[in-house]
Amino acid sequence: MVKGANVGLAALSEDVGSVMVSLGWSSATGEGDADVSVLLLDGDGKVRSDVDFCFYNNPVAGNGSVQLLGKTPTADGSEDRISFDLDAVPEEIDKVVVAASRYGGSRFGELDDLRLTLADSAGDGLVRFAVEEADEVSAVIFGELYRRSGEWKFRAVGQGYASGLAGLATDYGVDIDDDAAEEDAREQGEQGHEQEQGQEYEEEAPLPEPAGQPTAPAWVPAQATGARADDVPAAPAQDGPAAPAKPARRPRTAKKKVTLPRTTRKSLADNESWRSARLFPVSALKSDRERETRATSVVLSVMAQVPEFGRRLTAGFGAPAGRMETFTEVTLPHGESPRRPDGVVRVERAGKLWTALVETKTNGNALKPDQVQAYMDIAARRGYEAVITLSNDVALDGSPLVDVRIDGRRKHKVALWHLSWAEVVHQAQMLIRHEGVGNAAHAWLLQELLHYLQHENSGCHGFQNMGAAWVPVRRGIDDETLCQGDARALEVIENWERLVRQVCLRLGGEVGQKVLPVQRARRGSDPGARRAELADHLCEQGRLNAEIRIEGTPGVLAITADLRTGKLRTSIEVPSAEPGYPLSRVKRLIRRLAEAPADLHIETLVDGPGAGPRGTLERLRPEPADIVPKDGAQITGFRLSLFKGMGSGRGSAETGFIRSVDEAVDRFHAQVVAQVEAPAPRRSRSEEPTG
């Protein structure tokens, strides 16, 4: 589409009751980013209240009809996805504006390939709009969905705001309390989980729990559904004289969220042999079939009982925001031999049903193409919307886990989606540790689910094996017989990418921040061609390389696995833009790293060709001047690195490669990155630069 054009969605697809909008961009450094926001407008072109402003600190709006799903990596950057259940948008809403903003003085002109794509509920792309001429603005309206004669249409807008998020939001009636709203709202988002754990602002009264809401954890069957978080009634008006008006605050979620602390209470058991009774026991699991059956039932049950969790797992698949029911042990006719999918998810909204069949694998077992194909055929005949596969494997762009054929003669389209167990664990961790859920019972259910999924007997441990090509490729690198174009090297590259994505999910769930892999590739390049190029580099250099970006971290965490030396290197480049003499800047860095391991390597980065001096933290603590450039070169930053031996096994053993990568990233983040993020201790007067 071109700027200003519009199109009716019904003319593009029959499956537009739920649509997915993605905003994407890329940057030369791979570090450019922006925040997505959505505004729901009434007939006057204004929000009804601040809750109609959907952004990172209020990711769900319109009674669940709009939900921000977060970022997903692409071949040349990342995309922010937004789920719209158009059938459920409140009748008072005439228009939905989709925008994005940058912060900290950044402008959209620093990003490349600004684009919006819109897909139907089956995942088929319908609209693509490229935004141009956004050089000096810090906020952009990409497009808008609006009603005309009872139908939804889309308009490509591409309008920029030099005044940023504050100007955009104010134009549509959102209360913003100062001109620095972008930076302050960003800070508010970074401190969100502290507020969600009970800290409330004076003007925000806690909302009452709905009548009949359980106050203690209770087990319920998978087919029952709990009260929706969206159905919590508003707080009643208070009698008496009106309180003095207070300054308007930024929009934020109205309900107090419940999270669970990381540390458990002291046990009341007499001794360590006593085990707590678990809602989902795992001790009796003996076979793969038992693991698959139990895991499916456990996850589907919690999805139905905890609306926030069920919605997080299904919104990206085009499911509407509505009443969810889940089922297991379902029999469906299929020729002469009926089929029994592992599970079924049904969501009802405004009298319409959305249905997905679920096929589950645990303990590293691979999905069977004939099974998935049969479920796709059944779903197409019965008018179901999707088939969801759930396994330890991680799906990659352009490399499907299962190849299925689609009968083009069928009018009804079925979408095939994949979830890894690592994604399920990640979403549960984000809710109960950082973002919060509606009540304590829901938090407890998620805690029990996490205990089950992370238990060694569950079989739901995520990606754990580098594949059959791993050992031959390592041997080929050792004896220099691995040649470019070897298909085994490509298999290792694909599994390495799966491992890196899983590392991002696990670390993001622990720290409560967005953690995404960085894909440094030419814009529009094919994922298969990119992986083939990386496979050739592996054959030539014997190294696996990856970069991950952690929100709020000053730099990109790089991981290098050198298969020739058997060493893992984790590193980060920290910019040095602080004022002061070179020695003062070095001292400030070393003070920040007071608790870092002594074997941390520090390299000075200098402006111009050549490398700067380097040394270990143990040697530099008494002699920081050793890494000050002797030729007077300007310091641009520092590279911090840790080295670790990597395991030789194929993944699941204590010495396995995958476990080594996990441990290396965890150690580096906890002992190095977290300290760099912390504010530096105040410097002494003697270190102040003199004029």
Describe the structure.
- The chain is an alpha+beta fold and 691 residues long.
- It is 26% helix and 24% strand.
- It has a seven-stranded antiparallel beta sheet with strand order 18-19-20-21-24-22-23. A six-stranded antiparallel beta sheet has the order 1-12-11-8-3-4.
- The N and C termini lie far apart (57 Å).
- The C terminus is likely disordered.
Brief sketch in words of this structure:
By secondary structure, the chain is an alpha+beta fold.
Total strand segments: 24
Give the overall pLDDT as a whole number: 80
Proportion in β-strands:
15-25%
Low-confidence parts, pLDDT < 50 over ≥5 residues? 178-255, 650-655, 680-691
- In spatial order, strands of the major sheet run 18-19-20-21-24-22-23
Estimate percent helicity: 25-40%
- Spatial gap, N to C terminus: 57 Å
Task: Note the main sheet.
Answer: 7 strands, antiparallel
What is the C-alpha radius of gyration, as a whole number of Å?
A: 26 Å
Classify the secondary structure makeup into a structural class. Answer: alpha+beta
Shape designation: globular
In DSSP terms (H or I, runs of 4 or more residues), the helix count works out at: 14
